[in-house]
User: Fold these one by one.
Assistant:
Number 1:
Amino acid sequence: MELVTFFETLWLARIPILKGIGVTVSISVLAILVGTILGIGVGLALTYGNRPLRWLVRGYTDFIRGTPVLVLVLASYYVLGTIGIDLGPFQAGVLALAVFCSSHVGEIVRGALQSIPRGQTEAAKAIGLTFPQTFAYVLGPQALRQVLPAWVNTAAEMVKASTLLSIIGVAELLLRTQELISRTFMSLEFYFFAGFLYFVVNYGIERFGRYVERKTSIPS
Amino acid sequence: MKIALSAAVAALALMAAMPAGAQEKQSRLDEVLARGHLVMGTGSTNAPWHFKSADDKLQGFDVDMGRIVAKALFGDPDKIEYVNQSSDARIPNITTDKVDLTCQFMTVTGERAQQIAFTIPYYREGVGLMLKGDSKYADYAALKGAGSGVTISVLQNVYAEAMVHAALPEAKVDQYESVDLIYQALESGRADAVATDQSSLAWYMKQNPDRYKDAGYGWNPQTYACGVKRGDQDWLNFVNTALHEAMTGVEFDFYANSYKTWFGKELAPPQIGFPVEYK
């Protein structure tokens, strides 16, 4: 009986829930994408930048990594507004998550690049490769294998951090769930269901990571 | 004559020296009228105040207060852009101009009144007690008479115990962490009564007609009012006028309908003749 009521309520609420999943996925994908691109830049700067650049970027990563995501979300929504950059809740949220993601990816990339023996860069130089070529053909592919497991971890963290955007009113999956609960009073059931959906999204990311790992592994 | 002239010149010079924005500062009222819609902040997760209907439309008593203001502005209660905000965002969103107006069951306190300007109140909240329809206790007096024999279910809160004991000094207090659980405790007989906001009780009884009853006692008064940014008396006056006339004047039917929809009670129309405010 209880279960039947749950599924009936769920069916009635399918559109808002699907919209919520849509928003959660788009926030996550955008934040991970932008964060990864920025993060690669951060990692390169940390590894190969000259001293002033390295210090600047080190300051950026340490500051961002040491700040709670919630604070970043609130700052990009409220503080940027006071200096004239008026972002909507969705844009402000994506920006905060992307910045947070970039600092983590930057450190992961730096670690991976530094684990490659220096001799490889020297050998690439010896055969006349420019730096972009060295990165694209020698360092990049090796670093990618090192980066993947940690990157999957960060990506999953981003999906979970997207729930914080409900505070500034982005109608993502958690807020949609809370809206549903306030109407139906079925809190345990729907929180559990939302948890399951987050798991599905993160499981998808994990499978994607594994897939890329397989594709890029060295055939033995 | 000469003195008057030089005084006028001095006044002109002073005006010119002032920043342009300061002398032409428009009220938000003009800004909203020029924009063509009201930007209102409210939540989406608390029935019957602000929540989503089954077809995903924002509704509730707070939402209707915004609709009253929009109707006064444009003659159309639907000209509202809602900014969905959590309770924590109510005051920051007002002070950083994300919204023109916030109506989100905001309790008026001195501390908050230092940060934002409150409108006139539109509801007075209090805690009430709800019993099962077939409960062995008839009303508040019976519950109080039973002393330590009654168990009250209540939402978990630092003040929960003291709050219940203010009305029922000897009652046993069981705290639960979500709203559905306090109702479930009553339903399953683990509690004899639920103590929570009267508006929530009224809404729950309306959703489940004839299964529960109100014990007929209220305490812990709190005033709910909308909030606007400080320092714009023109805009505050306008919102106050709109709300005031909804409770006492031409828009009374709008307010009374909303009250009936969300709290299940009919309001007596304001008495004609001498204004009720001065009684």
Number 2:
Amino acid sequence: MIELVRDLSTFDGVPGFEGDVREYIKERAEKLCQEVFCDTQGNLFAFKKGEYTPARPIMLTAHMDEVGFLVKSITEDGMLRIVASGSVDPRVLIGRKMKVGKSKIAGVISLKAIHLTKPDERKKAPELKSLYIDIGADSKDEALKYVSVGDTAVFDSEFALIGSDCIKGKALDDRIGCAVLLKLMEQDIKYDAWFVFTAAEEIGARGAINAVQRIDPGFIAAVDSTGAGDTADTPVHLRSCAMRDGAVISLIDRGTVFDRALREKVTAALDRRCIRWQYRTRSEGATDAMAHVYGTGAKVFGLSTPVRYIHCACSVAYLPDIDAVLKAAGVFIEEAGDMNA
Amino acid sequence: MELVDKIKRLTSEFGVSGDEKRVSAIAAELLREYTDEVQIDEFGNVTGFLSCGVEGAPTLMLDAHIDQIGFIVTGITDGGFLRFMAIGVDQRMLPGSELAVLTREGVIRGVVGTIPAIMQDDPTASIPIGDMTVDIGMTAEEARRVVRVGDYMAFYNPPFELLGNKLCSKALDDRACFVCILHALELLRNKQLKVNLLVCASIKEELGGHGSLYVAYRHKPEFAIAIDVSHAKTQDAPEVVCELGKGPIIDIGYNSRPELFALVKKAADDNNIPYQVTPCPAGSGTNAWSIQLAGKGVGTFVMSLPLKYMHSPVEVLHTEDVRNTGALIAAFAQAFDGRVQL
């Protein structure tokens, strides 16, 4: 599992540019599934036969894209101005190493030296429009030899094991989910299932909406990553979920009211098998699950890995939590199938 | 070893002000290539002496500091997060950055975190350092076993190259300038000088030049050049005059003696070395400020390497500037006979 997450997080996949992630997954899925294909939006579909065929299809999604940037313009002095694709707090960009375009040109985002600032200036966070990527070019012409407007830019952050059983890296949202689905595909499953690796979740679950209409599933589980709020100064009662507390099960979010009967069956099964899980106790955000309204109707389940500092260069996750999500995804297939046999 | 590799070697190591010993060892090893008389004092200052062989010759000190900005652990929370204070860092650099925690068991990696943005009152305000913690992926029990209050931390960022002969790393301030001095020594190999050279890789500059002051007091050089970094122009600092890639910056003022300025400028002109001039009306913000006060007084001069994004985890220099700064140090040292006209 670590190797899968490591490999996947190293790839870059700004919405619409998920190609490297998709190729990696496709190559593995083809060895494990009966049917694998892509659609025109960049979604990757993999169908795996189970022991039984459910009355209506069971579908699991994980999104391949990550929050990132596109180059908006190149200034006369060779600096790259950027726009965000997905929701990123500009405050986490300052002091970061970036990689730009297909050839992964190295660059940095920074600010003038502290010596040149006034105390009041340091209290205000710069907006994205005032930040730029410095790739070392001295002029626009020099920069244009390596970079074009429209090129992607993403965090360059080494994947590493830290502390006890924790991982640190970029794009853990949602390469962890992609790794979970790939791992689940390696196992024998009780019911047939569609594993869908979606494009462009970060800009509104765009890929998932088309995918749902293609498969028209009766049951959907969105396997995603969600911000863990168990950081030092967050009041306990305001936390959404906590790292080390297991798989995160959604109740409601800005895109979905999750199916209560399905949720209760799955969580009861998790309890019977002593698999650690917790509820997501805040309602901000949305996942691929929001696409469930587009078909003829599906019972929908939300399953996430708690990730600290989500949408940052250095996100942190706990390996046993990922393992709990993998087990819970397997339980979802069984419970959904049993409801629907 | 290439100049860039020497810089990378020095900036890959961690050495915050007051905890420089690991860097001192590397600086001493690199300096031994040029003289057998290398010492590391009890504080971590590294000195190397190169005699010119002329009896009674004056000594020219060449100083660059090897400490870097950083952080100190001030507490461990019940969730296993580290509280910390900073030395010389803009708080806006920190959220989402990666730190090396320098524990007694070695370097461990951590990530700077805050409360999630959706729970902050004003997401357009920068976050005070007191409201940040370092996440080392451990529970409180584990963290307290490994980390002690008082442990140092530094930006993790290893060096890498950008386009156009640029190098990016933490701690280029001021270890890149120690490599400028090494380059000067390379150019001066087998050259007869009229002054002795006292090379110094000094500690605790970021706290006020304490290390170089001891060295100047003990060794009593007649003259000293403090080689440090200086701001280069960026889009968000258009008021800065000096630029990357245009050669060393030479200062003129009380702290960067006008009579030495004339000689350095002549050496640059005679050898076609590009340079930029900066007025230095009072303190230079370099070790020249402290060295000047040692004993009966040292004739100090300030030479600087242009640097973008100083004190950030991603400082940027131009490698040609390193070469030219070394060349100017060498050209001056070779021409200098220790006599100055006030």
